[in-house]
Amino acid sequence: MLSLPTLASLLLLAVPRTVYADPCVAFDIDFNLLAFGFGGKDFNAGPQDSWTSGDATDITASGRPPFDGVGTTCYLAQFFNAVYVLNGDKANPSDVHIYDATKKSWSTQKVTAGTFDTSSFKAILDHDTNVFYAISHGEMWSLDLGEQTVAKSDALSWTDVQTTPYGSDYDPTMALAQNHIHFIGVPDVPAGSVDIFVIHFSFFQPQPQSYSGASAFPATHGQTASFFQSEGVQQEFAFIPDDGSMTYVINVENNSTSTLAGPTSKDPKAQYAASITALVQLDSTGAVSFIPYKQGDASTNSAAKWATVAKIAAVAPAGTSASGTGSGASATGASGVGTAPAGTRLPASGTATGSASSQTGGAAAGSNGAFANAASFGSLASALLAALAFLQ
Ligand SMILES: *[C@@H]1O[C@H](CO)[C@@H](O)[C@H](O)[C@H]1NC(C)=O
Ligand SMILES: *[C@@H]1O[C@H](CO)[C@@H](O)[C@H](O)[C@H]1NC(C)=O
Description:
Elements: H1 4-14, E1 24-27, E2 33-38, E3 41-44, E4 57-58, E5 73-77, E6 82-86, E7 96-100, E8 105-109, E9 111-112, E10 122-125, E11 131-136, E12 139-144, E13 156-157, E14 159-163, E15 173-177, E16 180-184, E17 193-198, E18 203-204, E19 209-210, E20 222-227, E21 236-241, E22 246-251, E23 256-261, E24 271-274, E25 278-282, E26 288-292, H2 298-303, E27 307-308, H3 310-315, H4 329-332, H5 335-338, H6 369-391
One 2-acetamido-2-deoxy-beta-D-glucopyranose binds near residues 196, 209 and 255.
């Protein structure tokens, strides 16, 4: 018969390696890559030409959110060199945490959510108006961040804009470019076409827009990130279907599509951020990788390859990004979030991190299921441990 300690350790091994919190990645206006909530810390990986070696700089500062939420996303406000974090604090899910990337300081903006569901939405931050537009359960909402680099004492409010024409079953895949929100995979809209919301006129364009190109992007769910320009609005966005087979780049100036390699980590829960010259993937194990990009240079782009952002991996190896809070985490101890190699996150306990993309994402529907799973496993584990103790 197995000894009780052996049984107990087998039991501990069986505890799901749930990742309880989500990091996010974003850029500052100089396109240094910022990585927030990695193993309880925040890092600056510097400019793109430095990502493949060395150590990212620890920029963890007071006033930061705990990064213990699920579906955490962050967004660069390019005019203000500010990063806005949604769902960075699970105890206060409607708070917007503001990182002033110039002053390297944090503040917390209180937000009245009203009936807006902070646990189930996708959002983009409009470049010119600095207004968030979010879709939740088929309804469009907005949240105006004005010119903020720091929180105001008065709470902001999510405002109900209007009902989308897409139905509440549509799981939004939305991307910003040229002050238009592009919706991929809308029911009855074919591959290679999107439906459009024109922000300045608060108008859902009735006809889909099609895009030319050798390969039409599929009309499926996926993740997006808008490429910045050195100034002005975004003109192109990347679309990565959930199967990760390809990266499509949609140009909304001449309405064309081009392609880049699909990410190495095929992860429907990865999130993405883009600078002017790179697309970055943060997968759900906390691994960060990138592919270089050059607008208008098809031959360079078709040869481009994904590579690890070694500078982040050096200070925050994949699998350690979560802060490990939550019931059940104590049962697994340090190994719980520390040792799972890339790609081993169990679907059953996955936290639906990143159906969100950094520039265009939001929280995923049903993401709180992970807590329920963890809690019930936790109680099961304690019951079994209690039984073992009794036998002893
Ligand atoms: C591209 O699509 C947009 C949105 O439908 C449209 O306003 C614009 O005229 C199109 N551009 C070209 C060059 O066809
Ligand atoms: C559209 O513009 C992009 C970016 O400049 C360029 O790479 C692409 O070749 C253009 N496509 C067409 C069909 O003109």
